Amino acid sequence: MVEELAQSEGKYFGVKLSGTVGIGEEQKWLKELDKRVMQYDNVSLLLQLDDGAGWGLKAGWQDIKWVFHNMKHIDKVAVVSDSKVWEWLVKVDALFAKVVNIDESHFTHEELEQAWTWLKS
């Protein structure tokens, strides 16, 4: 399930992901991101992941294609999760993201407000 977070505004877009995200849900939130890219040129994203959050194969592939096509329009990505696996993945991915001028950082659920503050700074 993909749910837009109330703190989303302008170029700052946050979603809460729970369970396995299917292709329909993925396409819906990517369309919203496309609108924001067209309106603001660059966007910053906050992904709040529940413990069981993940992508189905088709949805994951759509996500990857969108990121590669739009990486020049992404300023920051905040990943909010209590999972040590996600924390490690973000640390590794942040090294590659830096190469294309994307700042990426991991936060725990307790640090959600800090994540929004960082995203908007």
Automatic annotation (TrEMBL):
<protein>
    <submittedName>
        <fullName>STAS/SEC14 domain-containing protein</fullName>
    </submittedName>
</protein>
<dbReference type="InterPro" id="IPR036513">
    <property type="entry name" value="STAS_dom_sf"/>
</dbReference>
<dbReference type="Pfam" id="PF11964">
    <property type="entry name" value="SpoIIAA-like"/>
</dbReference>
<dbReference type="InterPro" id="IPR038396">
    <property type="entry name" value="SpoIIAA-like_sf"/>
</dbReference>
<dbReference type="InterPro" id="IPR021866">
    <property type="entry name" value="SpoIIAA-like"/>
</dbReference>
